[in-house]
Amino acid sequence: MAAYGAVLSVSKIIHPFWGGRLGNTVKVFGTTLTSRRNKTLLTRENIPPPAKYGGRHTVTLIPGDGIGPELLSHVREVFRFSCVPVDFEVVHVNSALETEDDINNAITAIRRNGVALKGNIETKHTMSPSVKSRNNLLRTSLDLYANVMHCQSLPGVQTRHKNIDIMIIRENTEGEYSNLEHESVSGVVESLKIITRNNSLRVADYAFRLAREKGRRRVTAVHKANIMKLGDGLFLQCCREVASGYPDITFDSMIVDNTTMQLVSKPQQFDVMVMPNLYGNVVSNVCAGLVGGPGLVPGANYGHVYAVFETATRNTGKSIADKNIANPTAMLLASCMMLDHLKLYDYASLIRNAVLTTMNETRLHTADIGGQGTTSEVVQSIMRIIQSKGQLTSEL
Amino acid sequence: MAGSAWRSMLTQVVGGAIRRPALSSFSRGMQTVTLIPGDGIGPEISTAVMKIFEAAKAPIRWEERNVMAIKGPGGRWMIPPDAKESMDRSKIGLKGPLKTPIAAGHPSMNLLLRKTFDLYANVRPCVSIEGYKTPYTDVDLVTIRENTEGEYSGIEHVIVDGVVQSIKLITEEASRRIAEYAFEYARNNQRNSVTAIHKANIMRMSDGLFLRKCREVAENYKDIKFTEMYLDTVCLNMVQDPTQFDVLVMPNLYGDILSDLCAGLIGGLGVTPSGNIGANGVAIFESVHGTAPDIAGLDFANPTALLLSAVMMLRHMGLHDCGNKIQTACFDTIKDKKVLTKDLGGNSKCSEFTAEICRRIQDLD
């Protein structure tokens, strides 16, 4: 670990002189050292993320566009108020630019810190097709292969369906989001969907491990293998292989159109679901809608080495930006997931309980779930609850 | 000499032109429809629909055909020639559920029909049925799905062992065709807006092309509002408030998922009508549920899906009054809750349900 830090600091001095060359050496060194980290992670000995400078963690913060900046500033406010030992390194990404320098800086920052909290970066699809989605670039470069979302019915929120408790694990790097498109003949565009055995195996493995860890009974694989026989067939086969290693967990599969139909009529039948990228997008949005909307559900993207936390449905919310009506719940719960990842469990439960109390008992709701509160009112309420419960807080 | 030859040729041509339509669809004012009963519960629900149409005195002459795949010359699978010939003549078809046996060697029957008649648009109007309670009320939207290309082109390869690639094909021609159909449908059925659904932030070129074509077609239909929405946003909003949507047009895969999602909102595939529109004026209306082999022949089946598809067919043919009459009778029967089949929550048999609808139609007259 010390050697890694030393190499990094040396590179910081020499980098400006030697430009890219030494940077590559650091990358090689970096990969060998991180692969050592990898090996111990795979043997299930979790190394806590490096806590530098007197026990305080540094986390990369990417404000993004739309409601991202204001929600993340609320998160920082709550953290500061609760004296959470986390410092944020803010990296801005300008979605209007065509160059990828901004996002590469962000990726380097996340590699440095290991953990990030981000808002959604807008993708203007009116720009040329060579300008790729920044969020997608981030996920694939950092190899964040599993997107985890936990949809739970909250007692304080009015919804059509009750008692929903579904965990969705979605493959995050390949599938339809491979960004491989070409126009072979004028007027005919081909888009490639890639499914690989390795990625399918590792996301299925993640799903089953998570299911076992959380004491879940059933994992459902969502696919369309009756039409895409080779692609989704491979995914399904990998899931079955992994399932055979977990005899205590029931495994079944369901076709994606039937899944959506079942979700809107009887969502209580689902437990844990695992699926490729695009179906994950559809199913996670349907589930988020079922429990009350995009403002309530946090999401996490995990890789072997890095973790990035954000809202589950990844909305930019341009139409409600800067109006003080956005729902801070999703982002705050995502930050609690991040605190859990950093092993700061006490702070995580403190903030989470405050958020849920405001939602369920005080019933202070923002407009998206039918209330009249503003974002700042909700955040103030959360901080008041933290003050009454917690031991050490700064001035309100 | 030349004059008389010209005159005779002219009469021949004109006579032929007048004679031809009389042979094909109009004989004593009746329109011919090719009926494909299908498998499992198919025959019983087809009989139910025929009975109801008879009670409503609809000007329809049914021609029953079987579409079991046969191997044609050259080894390619095709539908029986008499079925094809009947469809080509009548241009309108009504189809029950078809089973696709696994490992039968022949491709799915639905796929075969789609390819044979170039059925490029799948239309599914989803309207909440009063009397069949679901958590969603006031649903009234139509999903129009491109049916020939997109993710379902079936082009897949194993590149290396463990890496599979599926190709999603989007063409200008197909996108333009489906967009035009969507706007025409909106205009003909007095709908206010058309929403194109896409994922152009991720699939820039393919969905970008689809969107561009939709925008171009929208220019010619200024009376109809055109909006674009991401697939995930639509899913999110659909389950929270489905009343904000009107006509939705989208490529194949999204259409598959969304049309089933909308069917789930109104109560499932047992009550959802569906129509496939093809080139050359061909249209096949079908019920999209399965063959239900476990209840086949036991008079438990629910004919609602096939009946509503048949009503869609009547509207397509311009017989709106007849269609409305049958639909009202059907909805009233369900609203009344006295005679309902098992899947709708009642205890009656299919024949009783059918008889009740026939009775209501006769009362309406």
UniProtKB/TrEMBL annotation, chain A:
GO cellular component: mitochondrion
Top-level lineage group: Eukaryota
Record's subunit section: Heterooligomer of subunits alpha (IDH3A), beta (IDH3B), and gamma (IDH3G) in the apparent ratio of 2:1:1. The heterodimer containing one IDH3A and one IDH3B subunit and the heterodimer containing one IDH3A and one IDH3G subunit assemble into a heterotetramer (which contains two subunits of IDH3A, one of IDH3B and one of IDH3G) and further into the heterooctamer.
Cofactor: Mn(2+); Mg(2+)
Transcription listed as a keyword: no
Pfam families (alphabetical): Iso_dh (PF00180)
Matches recorded under PROSITE patterns: IDH_IMDH
Localization of this protein: Mitochondrion
Ranges where the Isopropylmalate dehydrogenase-like domain occurs: 58-382
InterPro entries: IsoCit/isopropylmalate_DH_CS, Isocitrate_DH_NAD, IsoPropMal-DH-like_dom
PANTHER family given in the database record: DECARBOXYLATING DEHYDROGENASES-ISOCITRATE, ISOPROPYLMALATE, TARTRATE (PTHR11835), ISOCITRATE DEHYDROGENASE [NAD] SUBUNIT, MITOCHONDRIAL (PTHR11835:SF60)
Function: Regulatory subunit which plays a role in the allosteric regulation of the enzyme catalyzing the decarboxylation of isocitrate (ICT) into alpha-ketoglutarate. The heterodimer composed of the alpha (IDH3A) and beta (IDH3B) subunits and the heterodimer composed of the alpha (IDH3A) and gamma (IDH3G) subunits, have considerable basal activity but the full activity of the heterotetramer (containing two subunits of IDH3A, one of IDH3B and one of IDH3G) requires the assembly and cooperative function of both heterodimers.
Alphabetical keyword list: ATP-binding, Magnesium, Manganese, Metal-binding, Mitochondrion, Nucleotide-binding, Transit peptide, Tricarboxylic acid cycle
Name the UniProt record assigns to this protein: Isocitrate dehydrogenase [NAD] subunit, mitochondrial
Family the entry assigns: Belongs to the isocitrate and isopropylmalate dehydrogenases family.
MF (Gene Ontology): ATP binding; magnesium ion binding; NAD binding; oxidoreductase activity, acting on the CH-OH group of donors, NAD or NADP as acceptor
Organism: Parambassis ranga (Indian glassy fish)
GO biological process: isocitrate metabolic process; tricarboxylic acid cycle
NCBIfam families: mito_nad_idh
Automatic annotation (TrEMBL), chain B:
Domain of life: Eukaryota
GO MF entries: isocitrate dehydrogenase (NAD+) activity; magnesium ion binding; NAD binding
Keyword Ribonucleoprotein part of the UniProt annotation: no
Alphabetical list of Pfam families matching this protein: Iso_dh
Keywords tagged on the record: Magnesium, Metal-binding, Mitochondrion, NAD, Oxidoreductase, Transit peptide, Tricarboxylic acid cycle
Gene3D superfamilies per UniProt: Isopropylmalate Dehydrogenase
Cofactor(s) in the UniProt record: Mn(2+); Mg(2+)
Gene Ontology CC, one term: mitochondrion
UniProt record, GO biological process: isocitrate metabolic process; tricarboxylic acid cycle
UniProt subcellular location: Mitochondrion
Reaction catalysed by this enzyme: D-threo-isocitrate + NAD(+) = 2-oxoglutarate + CO2 + NADH
Domain Isopropylmalate dehydrogenase-like intervals: 32-357
Family assignment from sequence similarity: Belongs to the isocitrate and isopropylmalate dehydrogenases family.
Reported function: Catalytic subunit of the enzyme which catalyzes the decarboxylation of isocitrate (ICT) into alpha-ketoglutarate. The heterodimer composed of the alpha (IDH3A) and beta (IDH3B) subunits and the heterodimer composed of the alpha (IDH3A) and gamma (IDH3G) subunits, have considerable basal activity but the full activity of the heterotetramer (containing two subunits of IDH3A, one of IDH3B and one of IDH3G) requires the assembly and cooperative function of both heterodimers.
Assembly description: Heterooligomer of subunits alpha (IDH3A), beta (IDH3B), and gamma (IDH3G) in the apparent ratio of 2:1:1. The heterodimer containing one IDH3A and one IDH3B subunit and the heterodimer containing one IDH3A and one IDH3G subunit assemble into a heterotetramer (which contains two subunits of IDH3A, one of IDH3B and one of IDH3G) and further into the heterooctamer.
Protein name in the entry: Isocitrate dehydrogenase [NAD] subunit, mitochondrial
Gene for this chain: LOC114433500
